[in-house]
Design brief:
- The complex is a heterodimer of chains A (323) and B (365).
- By secondary structure, chain A is mostly helical.
- Chain A has 13 helices and no strands.
- Chain B is an all-alpha fold and 365 residues long.
- Chain B is built from 13 helices and no strands.
- The chains are: A mainly alpha (323), B mainly alpha (365).
Chain lengths: 323, 365
């Protein structure tokens, strides 16, 4: 980090700064360095306090999700020692037993262990679904926007039609009627139904970019259609795609939680954030609130982090924004 | 204008066609096929099953099934005559114009494979309940979104604005169903102020909109309405809290944009009161994008209703949808999906038309 900052102290973009550098560091040679778009974006992102806060929330949760299952693996067959059996599960406690998030009803699983394992699997599903759906959406949107014509009409008709029904309807129908159960199927269902918004966005970007002079230039030189799309246009469309896919991770986290909560998602004995919650509803009446509260809080922290980060990215990746 | 509306209506047909194919396709691919459930159900007699199979062409290839389900094909027709109704006219026409009486186009969506009741009856019973929940939420949600959005825009960068922004961010990150659980924990399980679910009191209340309910409404309106409101409070709060955030941010942005315009400066310079500037000059212009947005948000209202209805066991369409999916009751699942898709397409269309009416700058040939 210190490295980067030292480096940036040498970047001079105004006479005042030049003077400061000259008087402050007489030993340094003045260097003019141009930063590329990504370096500029990173600079803007670093100055966005909410974005940094969001990113730290999100990546903390990612770290928990990766390390959690290794440090405290969940064993669904583990039984509570007989002398520790309580009717309704224990409330959150640190001592004499270490259950910071309490225990579930009946089987008395440690909610903390469940949550830590659930974060990992839920993030895996939503990040995986985001990657696949972004790729599908980008390809469909690029072809539709750049090639246009009847291909565009057909593809966008299909997208319009699928958007006429709330996504959750299609996901629920597909999960139950086509069968789900393991996390990979759930991820695929999400990915195959979740690319619609991305494709629309990419299409609209492509429509405006394809009129640019450099595209004409490339075409005149004889560059092929696919090469124009993937080498010349897509790199310029990256910013909105990155923002939308960041935000869609949050959407998939909530969707996974809801679908599993209803019992149509991943196999109920596997801890995902939604599965943990699905048992919790019945326990609320008996006073066991911690079972429902802590997994939900984990969802809120992840989603909040992503939303902050997405907002920061949107500002940072906007090339018109001032540094 | 009329031409524009007609063109949009025609444009909606392919949309609805594709979505119906998708819905039908997913169900058709389901393991065991559509008839499996009916055959296991003792409530449905063999004769009813045969009639059902014939009417929906379940012994026919899939395209005939689809065609009959939509209502373009006549189950009694032969050869090319399948497209002709028993009255000798094209089957897709409405019944009173000499068309057929089967299929979605004629509001016939088959019978529930669990109870045997016609799907339209199930929807007719459930829909008003969802309408009560979603309608109340929509009104409250709009009012709150306007109040918070305009306040935040007028007092930009103040503490109020900051508080509203933070609330919006946090509320936006809440999964609807979990917020519902949280409210149940606090206000039902711990404080006991509100019931944890349902739409009427199971001991003293009556089934909503039944004859007994109307009688009770006239006999003791205070209790009946109070009972409804008590059950309505938590689900509505859930739905509103989660939905208000997005619109509030949207209205704030639209207002800030409007307040920056030249005509606002002119109005201020003329000495128009700040109140009038905000509400007459700025807000009216900020309304335009907001109106369009409302139409586009109707799908979220339905999606949100699924979550709230399940958590609060509100006996509406969303809860029925979840129950029916769990029971593989595919006629009901398809019926509710089709109705929802039609409502969504209609609301998008309405938003476009209202936008064209409200904004004098837009004219559609």
């Amino acid at each position: 980090m210190a490295d980067v900052d030292d480096h940036q102290a040498l970047i001079v973009d105004s006479p005042a700064a030049l003077e400061e550098v000259l008087t402050g560091h007489p030993d340094y040679d003045v260097q003019l360095e141009s930063l590329n778009q990504w370096q500029l974006s990173w600079r803007r992102f670093k100055r966005h306090r909410m974005a940094l806060f969001g990113a730290s929330l999100f990546f903390t949760m990612v770290a928990v999700g990766i390390l959690g299952p290794i440090v405290m693996p969940f064993n669904k067959n583990a039984l509570v020692p007989l002398d520790q059996v309580v009717n309704n599960g224990r409330p959150p406690m640190i001592y004499p037993y270490f259950h910071p998030f309490g225990e579930t009803q009946q089987l008395q699983y440690d909610v903390f262990t469940l949550v830590v394992n659930g974060i990992g699997l839920s993030l895996l599903i939503s990040v995986g679904a985001t990657v696949i759906s972004t790729i599908i959406g980008t390809i469909v949107g690029s072809l539709s926007g750049y090639i246009g014509g009847w291909l565009d009409t057909i593809l966008m008709r299909i997208v319009d039609a699928l958007l006429a029904l709330p996504l959750i309807y299609l996901i629920l129908i597909a999960s139950e009627f086509l069968g789900s159960g393991n996390w990979f199927t759930v991820m695929l269902i999400f990915a195959l139904l979740g690319w619609l918004q991305t494709s629309r966005l990419v299409r609209s970007v492509m429509l405006s970019l394809r009129e640019a002079d450099y595209v004409d230039a490339a075409r005149v030189v004889g560059v092929g259609r696919m090469r124009i799309i993937f080498r010349h246009l897509l790199p310029n469309a990256m910013s909105p795609i990155i923002v939308v896919s960041t935000l869609s991770v949050a959407g998939f986290i909530i969707t996974e939680a809801f679908v599993s909560f209803l019992g149509f998602g991943v196999d109920p004995s596997t801890p995902t954030l939604g599965n943990i919650l699905s048992g919790a509803q019945e326990a609320i009446g008996a006073g066991n609130w911690w079972w429902a509260v802590f997994p939900g809080l984990a969802i809120v922290v992840i989603v909040l982090g992503i939303n902050f980060m997405g907002d920061g990215l949107q500002d940072a990746l906007d090339p018109r924004a001032k540094v | 204008m009329t031409r524009y509306i007609i063109r949009r209506l025609i444009g909606a047909i392919p949309t609805l066609f594709v979505i119906s194919v998708v819905i039908y396709g997913i169900v058709l691919l389901s393991p065991g096929g559509p008839t499996a459930r009916f055959e296991q159900n003792p409530k449905i007699t063999a004769a009813a099953l045969e009639a059902f199979k014939h009417r929906w062409g379940l012994d026919q290839p899939w395209f005939v099934q689809y065609c009959r389900w939509v209502g373009v094909c006549n189950p009694d027709g032969q050869g090319l005559g399948v497209f002709i109704s028993n009255h000798g006219l094209p089957n897709f026409l409405p019944g009173f114009l000499g068309g057929g009486d089967n299929g979605v186009l004629h509001l016939d969506m088959g019978i529930s494979s669990t109870t045997g009741t016609p799907v339209m009856d199930v929807i007719a019973e459930r829909f008003p309940r969802t309408l009560v929940l979603a309608g109340t939420s929509l009104v409250l949600w709009m009012v709150l979104a306007f109040i918070t959005g305009v306040t935040a825009a007028v007092k930009r960068y103040s503490k109020v604005d900051g508080a509203i922004t933070v609330f919006n961010y946090v509320a936006y990150s809440f999964p609807t169903f979990w917020l519902g659980l949280l409210l149940i924990i606090i206000f039902s399980a711990q404080l006991g102020w509100f019931p944890a679910g349902g739409m009427w009191d199971s001991r003293n209340g009556q089934i909503f909109a039944s004859q007994a309910w109307w009688d009770a409404l006239f006999r003791d309106p205070l209790f009946t309405i109070g009972d409804l409101v008590r059950h309505l409070t938590l689900p509505v709060v859930t739905l509103v809290a989660v939905s208000v955030a997005g619109d509030s941010r949207f209205i704030r942005a639209a207002m800030i944009d409007a307040l920056r315009q030249d005509f606002v400066r002119t109005a201020r310079a003329k000495g128009v009161s700040e109140r009038r500037v905000v509400f007459r000059h700025a807000l009216r212009n900020a309304l335009l994008p907001v109106v369009t947005n409302i139409g586009l948000e109707i799908p979220f209202l339905f999606a949100g209703a699924i979550a709230t209805e399940t958590v609060f066991s509100w006996p509406g369409m969303g809860a029925q949808f979840i129950t029916s999916i769990g029971q593989y009751d595919y006629p009901v699942v398809m019926g509710i999906s089709v109705i929802t898709a039609v409502l969504v397409v209609a609301s998008n269309l309405l938003a476009d038309v209202v936008y064209a009416i409200v904004d004098p700058r837009i004219s559609y040939g």
